[in-house]
Amino acid sequence: MISRRELGLALAGLGQAEAGELIELAGYSVGTGDAYAQARRALRAVCSRPKSVLHTTVYLADAKHLPEVDRAYKGFFGREFPARTVLVAELRTPGALLEISATASRQARRLIQNEFPASAAAEAGGTLFLSALRAGGADVGQQTDRLMQRQNEVLGMAGYSFADLVLSKIYLSEPTAYNALNEAYRRYVTAPPPARATIHARPVRVGELLQVQSVAVRGSGIGRPSGAGITSPIHSFSVLAGRRLYITGMTGRTAEGKFAPDLADQTRQALAMIAEQLERHGLGFANVVETTVWLRDVGDASLVMRGLAVSGARTIVGIPPSSPEGLVEIQMVAEMAGTSRLR
């Protein structure tokens, strides 16, 4: 069992964001033990209060470790399971078989369609975290169509709708299917659409062409800003919901539609675009509570971190952007000052 001192050191090194009612804990991994032992240790590090957890993301070095992770989840969460996303990724920690990040709440949670190993969604304080949903089908268009229908069902069960979506993270197994994904996706999201990130994640299960994990905030579609420079046909560049700003995953693509030549330039370009969205709402990088960085080569993490002067929880893993020219994609969530903090 992880000691209190070890837990404290882990949290100090990881980064923790406690602004407002939601709490983010960055990815935690260790490089010793089998997948079951690593999963138990990671869960204890990032989820000190299991019944407060709304969503976890599990990054696996290999999909074969999923059964052992599920076994650890059952032992840790008992009979009440938060929403969950499972991805295959390259990890920064030598010897690590998995990495886990989490979002928790200081408010009472409500689980939607609770079952092992993950509920379909979990809600607290008017914010709903959906598990990464998947659906069968012969191609990406068919799977997207069925997946969005499933998402609509889960939103409805929780008393939400597509208009309440503020962020969707799409994990696409085959980047060449990007246009087919968008053709089906745009039939479901309501204008203005949520912020979005689309990255190239290897399938966790045979036949899986994509997963979609979303966040919804009750009533956020009312009065949501739209217009030139703020929304595109498939995503908003940022969505302000309550006191939180959800920003689309930004890459190194310039205003001319071309990618900057190297990783350092792409990182600067992505951060400049994020800064623009923060400034639109009177915010800065000091307001950031959660950062996720997806890299084509996880060995480049140290270079990206040098330019990543942001606060809050951070997770950096090796999952490529959907464009073959993209070397990095960065997605952030910021929060306005003035909310109470967990003590």
Topology record:
Elements: H1 4-14, E1 16-17, E2 22-28, H2 35-46, E3 53-60, H3 66-77, E4 83-88, E5 98-105, E6 110-112, E7 121-124, E8 127-130, H4 140-157, E9 165-172, H5 178-185, E10 195-199, E11 210-217, E12 238-241, E13 244-247, H6 263-280, E14 288-295, H7 301-306, E15 313-317, E16 328-335
Parallel strand pairs: 3-4, 9-10, 14-15
Antiparallel strand pairs: 1-2, 2-5, 3-5, 6-7, 7-8, 8-11, 9-11, 12-13, 13-16, 14-16
Helix pairs in contact: 2-3, 4-5
Instruction: Note the overall shape.
Output: globular
Tally of individual domains: 3
Major sheet: 6 strands, mixed
CATH architecture of the largest domain: 2-Layer Sandwich
Order of helices and strands: HEEHEHEEEEEHEHEEEEHEHEE
Walk across the major sheet and give the strand order.
Answer: 6-7-8-11-9-10
Total helical segments: 7
Uncertain residue segments: 1-15, 339-343
As a percent range, the share of strand residues is 25-35%
In short:
The protein has 343 residues and is of the alpha+beta class. The protein has seven helices and 16 strands.
